Input
Amino acid sequence: MKTNNFLEKVMSKVTVYLVVIAFLLILLIVLRPKLLVMCLAVFLFVVAYAFFGNLIRKNEIEEYIANLTFNIDAVTKDTLLNFQMPLVILEKSGDIVWSNSNFDILFQSIEGQEGLNNIIKEFKQVQDSKNEKRIYTQTTINERIYDVYANVLRVESKHGKEQDNVLMVYFLEKTDYVHLIDVYDKSKLCLGILAIDNYDELIQSVSEEKRSQINPIIGKLIRNWISRANGMVIEKDNNKYIIAFEKGYLKSFIDEKFSIIEDVKKIDFGVKMPATISGSIVVSDENINEKYNDVFSSLDVALGRGGDQIVLKKDNKFEFFGGNTVEVEKRTKVKTRVVAQALKEFMETSKNIIIMGHKQTDVDCIGAGLGLYRMAQTLGKEAYIVLDDKGDMLKNLLNKIENSKKYENVFVNKNEALSQITADTLLIVVDTHKQDYTECPELLNETDKVVVIDHHRRSTDNIKDPVLTYHEVYASSTCELVTEIIEYSDEKINLDVLEAESLYAGIMVDTKNFTLKSGVRTFEAAAYLRKQGVDVANVNQLFRTNFDKYVIIADIVKNMEVVNENIAISICPVEDNDTMLITAQAADELLCIENIQASFVLCKNQNQICISGRSLGSINVQVILEKLGGGGHINMAGAQLDDITIDEAKEKLKQVILGKEENA
Output
C-alpha cells in the first residue's frame, strides 16, 4: 500500500510537468507557427521518456520490495526456530502445525505430553466461551514452572473467509521466581502466645511440692515443641509463653493438629484435673506491633470458646484446633456482682430498654429476657422483649405468658422494636454474641449502648464494641447468668413466679434436666429460683410432647445411621411448625443409645436445612458444625445450610465428621 501511494505521488508530479511543458510548447507554437512539427516531436519524446522511465523505476521498486520481504521472512523464520522460549502453533483440535526446537525438547517426555494435553484442554474451554483472544494459564512440566500464553490467530480459509482456528502458544519459565517467592513467604514471622487455661485451679489443687513444678514442666514441653521449628519462646507472667517461628514450619504444626495441646494434657500432676493450654498464632503481612496486638485479641477468642484450643489467624480468617475438653467452672461471684452493678447503672441512665435474643428463639432466650425485664421494671424503666419467631418450641411457655395478662405490651416484633429504639436506648442481647444471628440485627446500628450476655463459645463474627459483656462459656445457660445477676444485684428484685419458672426452664433445657454441663453454680442458681416459688412439676409441663410427635421421634431414632462407630446421624421426615422441636428432642434421644457419643439430626425448615448436634462430651459437636457455618457448645450445637438438599447436607456432614471436608 505504501508503494502504490508513492507511485501515485510520483505519477502526479510527472503529469504536472507534462502539462507545464505542453503549455509552453503551445505558447511557442502560437508565437512561431513554423515550429509546430518540432514542438510536437519534442512533446511526444518527453511523454515517452517519462512513461518508460517510470515503468523502469516501478520494476526496480517491486524487485527491491520482493527481496526485502524475502529477507524479513528468512530472519523471522530463523528467529522463531532459534527462539529461547518454547513456541508452538496449534490447531483448535490440538494438532501441532509447527513448533521450534526448544518446544520439542521440553515436550519429548511423557510428563510433557500430559502437560500439553491439559493446556490444550484449558485453552479450548476458554476459546469455546468466546471471551478473549489472548489466553493465559500456568503449568508445571518436569518440575519446572511455566507461564503459558496463547494468541488466537486468524487465518484465511480457501474460500477467503477469516477463521480464528490457530493458537500460537509460548512458554515463559518462572521456576526460580516462584521458588524465590516461596522462600520469602516461608521466612515470614509467625507470632503466637500459649497460656495455661486452668493455672489458678492447678495451683490450688496440686500439692505444695508440685506447685513449683507446673511452670518448668509445661515450659520445657513448649520449648521442645517449638524447637522443632527452630523457633523461640519467651515466658511472660506465670502462665503465658510468647512464641515465634518461621511460616515454613506452620504446615507441619497444622498437619499434626498442634500436638502440644494433647501433650500438655498428658502431664500428670497427681490430680484428676488435667492441665490445658490455649493459644493463638497470627500469620499476616502486618508489622510486628500489629501482630503482637492481634495475638492477644485472638487469645481472647480461644479462651472465650472454652479454652483447650489454638486459634490460627491467617489472612483475617480463623481456624481452630483442639477444644475437646469440657469447660471447667471458674467464675467468681465478684465478677457477677461487678456486672450486676454495671448493668444496673446502664439501665438507670437509659431512656428505655430493649432485650433481644437470637433467631429461632428458644426457652433460654425468653427466660433470660423475662428476668432482665423484671430487673428493669424494679428500677422503674420501660422495657420490651423482641420476639418475632414464635415457633412451636415456645408454644406452651408463650401460652402461659399470654394467659397471665401481665405482659401484653412487653413482647414486640422487629418493626415495633425499631420504632421504640433511640440513641439513648439500652439494647441487651441475650444467648448470642453473633451480630447476624440476633433476632433483629438492624437494632444494633441504632444505639451505641449494647450489652451482651451469653454462654456460647465465642466465634469470630461477634458484636463489635459492646459497652458491657458478660460472656461466660462455663455457664450452663444464659438463664443461669441472668439469675446470678438478679441474685447478686444491690437492688432487691422480686421475681414473679412465671418469670422464675421461665428462668428455671431455660436452665433445664440447656442442661438436659441437669445431666449436662451442670456445675455448682448451676445448682445454686436453680436453688435460688426454687426459693422464688418455682414448681418443678409446672416447669415439666412445658416440655411434654404429644403421641404423634413421639412416634416421629421414634422413627428418627429407628432410621439412624452410625458413622465412626459412635456418631449417630438421622433425618427428620416431617416439615411443619414442630420440626425444630422434634429435631432437637430426637438428637437428645439418640444419646440414650449404647455406644453413641454424639448425634446429629437434620431437618428442612422453610428454605433451610437445619442440623441439631448433641454430645456426651467426648466429641466436640461445636467444632464439627462450625465447619458448616454453625456453632454452639462442646455438647450442644446447631447449623443452618442454604441452597442445598437434605441428602446433600447429610453427605456434607459425614465428610466433615470423617475429616474429608476439603472434598465435601
